[in-house]
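Dear colleague,

Following up on yesterday's call, I've attached the two folding results inline so they're easy to grep. Please treat them as preliminary; we haven't cross-checked anything against experimental data yet. The first protein's sequence and structure tokens come first.
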Amino acid sequence: MASFAAAQHLLPASTFRSSPLLPNRPSISSLSYKPLSFSSSMAGFGQAGVAIEFKDRGSFVQTATVRHLMGSLTRAEGLRFAVVVARFNEVVTRLLLEGALETFKRYSVKEEDIDVVWVPGSFEVGVVAERLGKSKKYQAILCIGAVIRGDTSHYDVVANSVAFGVLSTSLNSGVPCIFGVLTYEDMDQALNRVGGKSGNKGVEATLTAVS
């Protein structure tokens, strides 16, 4: 501060009021920026664009035009569905099926528009689902099964194979195959998820199918 005061006595006052090295600059609040915009498009999904505009300090205007594509959970009347159910662990899979059929009914799917196919076990679910998918008769295929861990590694083999099979079925047939094959550590855990305290997973899978 002392050196600055001394400089004021040595240099004319105009030096500090205006200097080529320190030109007068507008305040930030007076700046105005031109709008910045960009857009992108994806085949089959329309166009999406975003425009951003800065006007004054503290002013931010954003407009967006984005198409959101999502299914409807209101009505599924007139659509056909298939359900592939494993008989193995039927005490569990039958409850899953009951939850699924009740949910289809709730969303206006007629009984004659639902085909239920029983297979020996969860391992066979993907094979039959793929055949149904390639028929092109169904809006979606619901795959239901139950794999419960035992004393050997058989559980891991079956669970992984079923998951891969259902995924492959969707890709190969072009029809959504909903994974409703559930894996559990024990029977108590299974029963809790087919109408117990954890709800019915068959209902959740069906909501995915009709959406």
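Below is the second protein, in the same order (sequence, then structure):
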Amino acid sequence: MKAAQEAGTVVYGQPLLPHQWHLEPPSPQYVIVLDSYHSAGLHRLRLSNRRGLFCFLGVLVAVAIVFVFWPSDPEISITHLRLDHFHFRTKPEISLDITLGMRVKVRNRDFYSIEYENLVVGVGYRGRRLGIVNSHGGRIRARGSSYVDTMLTLNGVEMLSDAISLIEDLAKGAIEFDTVSDIEGKIALFSLELPLKAKVACEITVNTDDQTITRQNCYPEF
């Protein structure tokens, strides 16, 4: 009887299920709700960023166009200089008879044509101007070049101060000349005509044996 009672005894406070079968409580879930005010603010911010980017790109394109199409001075150089006639006089005074044949190259670096009215080339020796030659004008197409042949004839040029230097240069077979080229004209930019004026100086070394230019250094003058 006692054993039966113990078997039928109910102990209160004990779990109905074993401990390992307990159910875990569900994890909390969060939902973020954006109101219409924040959504509109983000939209305006994106539009503002796009407008700023477009403005920045527009400025870059404008600067690039101005850089490419802004008028620049033509490039002037002496491609050939020969001594056609050279005579050194000692009576009645030390003087020089010289004839120089030159080929001048004028290069248009712009994307539109230029028209030059005249081209003036001055030739000097050791900083002293010997003479100038004036050439007729012409037209140079966009990104093109034009060659101008000129002849400079000098008779009886007094060279007393530079006689010794000239004799030394002739003995060495090389004479250094300096030239200054002036060009004036206009630039045909669409329907506009802009004035053009440029000045370029060059230092040239001529080989008196084969009449070739062995060295040339040109730079713009302002």
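For the second protein, one point worth flagging: The beta strands are 75-89, 95-107, 114-125, 128-140, 145-158, 174-189, 192-207, 212-220.

Best wishes,
A.L.
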